[in-house]
User: Fold these one by one.
Assistant:
Number 1:
Amino acid sequence: MDDRNMESSCSTCNEIDGEHFKSIIHIDLDCFYAQVEMVRNPELRDVPLGIQQKNIVVTSNYEARNYGVSKCMLVTDALKVCPNLKLVNGEDLHSYRTASGKVFLVLQGWRCPVEKLGMDENFIDVTSLVEEKLKNANLNDLIVMGQLYSEPSAECPCGCHNRLKIASQIANEMRKKIYDELGYTTCAGIAHNKLLAKLICPLHKPNNQTTIFPQHGANYMSTLTSVRSIPSIGSKTMEALISQKIISVSDLQEAPLEILKKHFSSDMAVRLKSLSLGEDNTPVKQSGKPQSIGLEDSFKTVSVKSEVEDKFSALLQRLLVLVREDGRIPVSVRVTLRKKDAKRLSSHRESRQSQISPSIFTLSSGVLTVTEAGQQKLMAIIMRLFTKLVDLSKPFHLTLVGLAFTKFQERMTGRSSIVNYLMNDISVQSVLNLQNDGDASITSMDYSAASPSSSTTTDLSDAEIEPSPKKPKKVNWIAKKRCLAKEEVASPSKLKVGELRLNSKELEKVSELRLNSRDRSLTPRASPAKDNFSDASDSMKDLEDGACNDCPSYVDKEVFSALPDDMQQELKSMWKNPTSSEKTRSSPRKNKSKPNSIMKYFVPQK
Ligand code: TTP
Ligand code: MG
C-alpha cells in the first residue's frame, strides 16, 4: 500500500482541535538571487545563470539546474556540466535585501502575521482570515488550489480540510500578487502548522504550491531521508541521533521515547518525537527589524593577526553601510571566529560580544555616520574581542571571521533629549543572543539555518572600557510594562526638567512622531509602527486603562505616563484650568514665562 494512503486516525480531531485549527502558509522565492538578477536584466532570463560568490555558485536559475548546476557547486564544476553558464557576481547583497523587503511588504498587505525567515522565505498565519472567508464560503465549491499532497479518504471532522482549501486560495493570491507586482515566481506550502508548511513547500517547485492535510503529516515526514531535514535539528542533535542509528525521520518516528530520553532531556525527547510525526505548535511571530545585522567572510585559512585585522576592517566597512541603511544605532558588537581544530580535523565557531558606546555613531541630517576616530575605536574593540578568543602565543588557524551588531538603540538624539522620552519605542529593540545557535535546546522551533556548534560570550570587561549606558528608573519601568523584563534596556537619556534643551530638529521630530494625536487613535496597534511591537501594544493598553484618564485627547497617554511625577502634576493642573491650557495649545512657543515648559510639547500638529 502506498505510504501516502496510510492516514493517521482523525477520529479525535475535535478533542485536539488545538492542533488543527491553524492555517499557515510558507512562501519561498524560486532561485532567489538568480531571479533578482533576471528581473533586473531580462537578457538573463532565458540563459543558464549562476550567481557566484567567491568560487562557489550559491544558486542558479532553473535553466542552469536542468544542466545539473546545483546550489553551492564549485564554479569549476558548474562550468564543466554547463560550459555556457552565465555567471553574475552576487557578493553585494543589497539588491537581494531590497527585493526581500518588497516581498515582505506585499505579504503584509493581507494584514496577517508575517514572519520572515532568512531573505527569501516567509510564514504567514492566515487563521483569522480563513475564518472570515469561511463564513461566506460555499463549502461544496471549495477546492485546493495547486497541488494536494495526498487525497484524503475521509473528511476530518474538525473542518481543517475546508480551512486549508481556503488557505490554499489565499496562498495563490499572494503568489500572484508577488509575481504581478515584483515579477518573482514563488513556491508555497499550506498546512496547519509551520513545520509541515515549510517542509511541503518545495515538493512541486518551481512556481507551484502544495497543500497537506494534517492526517498526512506523519506519512510525509516519514519520506524525509535525513533527520536534519527538520528545522531546528542541528548538527549536534543529528550526531547524537546518528549515534543511536536514528538517521531518517521514520527511524525517529519508530525510536522508543525511553531511548531518546537517555540521550536528551525529557522535554527535548518528546519534542523530537512530535516533530518526527509532523506536529508543531510554534506560532508565527510578526517580524520587525532584524535582531542583528552581521556579515561573515569564510576562507581557506588565516593564521596571522594582521590578516585577521584586514578581514575585520573590510567587514566593518561593509557592515557600516548596512547599519546606515537600517537607521538604528548599534550598542553591541559581536565577533565570531571559526577555528580549525587540527587534532579533531574539525572546526567550530566561537563568538564574543561587547557593548559599544552609542556616541561612536553620529546622526548628521538624519544619516548615521561614524567618524574615522569612531571606526578606530570600533576596530580596537573588535581586535580586543579577537585576542580574547585566540591565544596569540600559540599558532591559530581560522576559516571564517564574522562581525555583527547585535543590539540597537532605536533612536538617539542627544544625551538629555526629551525625544527619547516622547517616543513609544522609547528605549531599545534589543536581544541578547547568548545561547548556542544550534542545538542546545529545541524547546521552541528555530527555523533559521542551523549553524554548526557555536558559543557566544558577552564580554563584560569591555563594558568597562566602553561604559555601559545608564538605565534610568523610569525607562526600566516602561520596559517592564512592555514585557521586556528579560531584555536589556540600553541608554535612553534621562529627562531632567532643567535640561530641556530641544533644538528645532528634535522639536520637529517630537511633533511629527508623537504629538500628532489628531491623526492617531490610541487603540493598540493603531499605528503601523506598532505592529512590530506587539508587546508594546499590550503595555499601551495598560497605560490607557489607568494612568491618564484626565488627559486631553491630543495627548499620547503612554508618553504622559513616562514623564516624571512632578511634570505630570504640572500638566494635570494646567489641563484642569482650561484657559491656560487652551492658551498653551494655541501658542506654545509664545509662552514666555516658561520657555522650556513641557506644555509646549503637547501640542497637536496643525
Ligand atoms: P534557497 O531558498 O535555498 O535557494 P533558492 O531560492 O536560490 O532556490 P530554490 O528555488 O531552491 O528555493 O536560498 C535563497 C538564496 O540564498 C539563494 O538564492 C542564494 C542564497 N544562498 C546562499 O547565499 N548560500 C547558500 O548556501 C544557499 C543555499 C543559498
Ligand atoms: Mg528559495
Number 2:
Amino acid sequence: YRMQETKERQLMPPVDGVQGQCLLWKVTILFYLPLRQIRYLPDAIINAVMRMRKMKDKGTLVVISGFSGAGKGTVSKALVEKFGYSLSVSATTRQPREGEQDGREYYFKSEDDFLRLIDYNGFIEYAQYVDHYYGTPRKFVEDELEAGHVVILEIEVQGAMKIKEQYPDAILLFITAPSIEVLKNRLIGRGTETAEVVEKRMRRAAEEAESIEQYEFIVSNEEGKLEDCMNTIHSIIESESCRITKRQEFVASLREGLEEYKENIDKDK
Ligand code: 5GP
C-alpha cells in the first residue's frame, strides 16, 4: 500500500502547504505572464500585417526616351534581364519589323482597334510618331506599380510628358548616342528602315532634342559599353527610390511602430 501511495505521490504531488505555494508561483510564471503577453498578440499580428501592407510602397515608373537609334530598346531589355524590372509592351499601328513578334516587342493593332482602345481608356498615354500611333496599355502598368515593381516605359517625348503629368514621381531618363554621327550611322546600319524613314526619324530627333530639359537624367549609350549604361541607369533608379518623399508610407509605418511600442511599455507599467 505504501509503495502504491508513493507512486501516486510521485505522479500527483500534493497541492498543499509550502509545496502548493511553490506550484502556484510556477503556474503563475509559466502561464500567467505569457498570457499577459498573448493578450496583446492578436493586436500585434494585425498591426504587423497592416504595417507590412503600408510598408509596401508603390512601385517606380521609369520612362526611357531617346532618339531613334540611341539603343533604348537594347538598354531596356538588358535592364529587365539583369535587374528583373518590368517592361511595358506598347501597342502600335506600325507594321512589325523582321523578327518582331506580336505581344513581345509590341501589340500590333489596326488603326481602328487602336482608336477603339483610346475610347475605352485603355492607354495611360498615347502619341503619334512618324505616321503611326503608339500607346502604353493601362492595366499592365497599374498592376505592376500596385505590386511595387519598377516598370520601364520605353516611349517618345510627348508620351513622357503625359506620364509626368499623371505620375509626378516617375523618373524621366533620356538616352542618347555619344554623337549625332554615331546616331545616324546606327539608324542606317540597322537596315530596317528606308532612307526616307531614316530622314524622318532624324528630323524627329531634332524636334525631340528641344524637350531634353524636361527630362531629369541624360545617359550616353556608348559603343560596346552597354553594361556601363545599364549600371548608370540602375544606380539612378536605386537612389531615386530612396528619396524620403517616395518613402512616406515607410516612414509613417516606422513612426507608428515606435508609438505602438511606447504605448505597450506604458500599459505594462
Ligand atoms: P519604333 O517604331 O522605333 O519601335 O518606335 C518609335 C518611337 O515610338 C520610339 O521613340 C519609341 O520609344 C516610341 N514608343 C514606343 N512605344 C510607345 C508608347 O507606348 N507611347 C509613346 N508615346 N511612344 C512609344
Number 3:
Amino acid sequence: MKHAGAGIAITGSGSAAPVASLDNDQLSQIVETSDEWITARTGIRQRRLANSGGTLAQLATQAAAQAIAMAGLTALDIDLIVLATSTPDDLFGTAGLVQAGLGASRAVAFDLTAACSGFVFGLVTASQFIHTGVYRNVVLIGADVLSRWVDWSDRRTCILFGDAAGAVVLQANERDRLLGFELRSDGTQNHYLNLAYQPQATSLLDGLEIGQGSFHPITMNGQEVYRFAVRRVPEVIEKALFRANLGVEAVDWLLLHQANQRILDAVAQRLNIAPEKVISNLARYGNTSAASIPLALDEVVRQGTVNPGDTIATAGFGAGLTWGAAIFQWGR
Ligand code: UT7
C-alpha cells in the first residue's frame, strides 16, 4: 500500500487458552443438544472456558509475551498495545492491565471493540501508526472471554463460543507486508447479534431519573448472521485483494474468523480457494471472537505450516454488524 512512513511486518505471534475444556457430550448435560448436531452444524467439538478466577488480562498478557519473544523484542521495545476485545475485565479498559503485566512501561495502551472483527480492525488501526512513522513496534491482541456473557440455557448460542487470546507483533519494515484491506460496518443490522446494556430506571431525586442496569447475555439470530457472513465475507476479501492488486490465486492461506466450519467452507468455495488452504482450528476452540484469528495464526506459524513470505487472506465478521478483510504476508 502507498503511505508516507514505514511499511509493516508481522514478526511474532502468541496465544493462550484456559486449561478447562468442555466437549459436546458434556454440553449435552447442560442443554438439550448432541455431539452429532453440534459437529454437523458447526464443526465444533470442544471449547476452552476460563474459570471464575481467570481474567481476560491474564490470557492477553500471556499471548502478548509470547509474540514479543518470537519477534526478538522485549516489553520495553513496545510503543503501542492495542487490545481488541468485547469482554474487558474493566469497562474503562483492560489494555492498561496488560501493559502493566508485561512491564511495557513505554507503551501507550488502549482497548478496541469490534466484536469478532476486532482483530482485523485492530490490525488496520495499529498499522496506521506505523505507516505514518509515529510508532515502530506494536502489539496487537485479540482476546475474549465470552463464557461470561453466554446464556448457558440457550442452546442456539451456548454451543458456539469459547475463551482465548491471540497476539501479534507489528514492526516497522522496509517492505510493507500489509498488502490491502477493506473494513465495513452496518449498524442497521445491529439487532442480529447483541450483548446489550439494559438500563433500569433509578430515581436520584424528584424528576431526575437515570438508567442503572447490567448487560444482557448474548442474543443472536443465527440464520441471519450465517447468511450475512457467507454473502459479505467473500465480497470483502475480493475488495481487499483488489486493493492489493492481487488475484485470488495469490492467496496461500485463507484465515477466517473461526465461527462455523460451514461458513469457512462456503466462503472458500465462493472464492474458489482449495480446502487445503483453509486454516481451521475451531473444532478444538469454538468461536473465540476477537481471539480466533491470531489463535489460529499462532498455531500454524508454530507448526511451520505458514512460512515467511506466505500470503494470507484474513477476514473477521460479526456483531455490529462489522466485517473486514486484510491481505498480508507473514514475516519480514
Ligand atoms: O462470530 C459470529 C457469531 N455467529 C455466528 O457465526 C453464527 C452463524 N450462524 C450459525 O452458525 C448457525 O446459524 C447456527 C450453528 C447457530 C445454527 O445452525 P442452523 O443450521 O442455522 O440451525 P437453525 O437455527 O436453523 O436450527 C435448526 C434446528 C431447529 O429445530 P427445528 O425448528 O428445525 O425443529 C433448532 O431448534 O435445530 C434446532 N437447534 C438445535 N438442536 C440441537 C438449534 N440449536 C440446537 C442445538 N442442538 N444446539
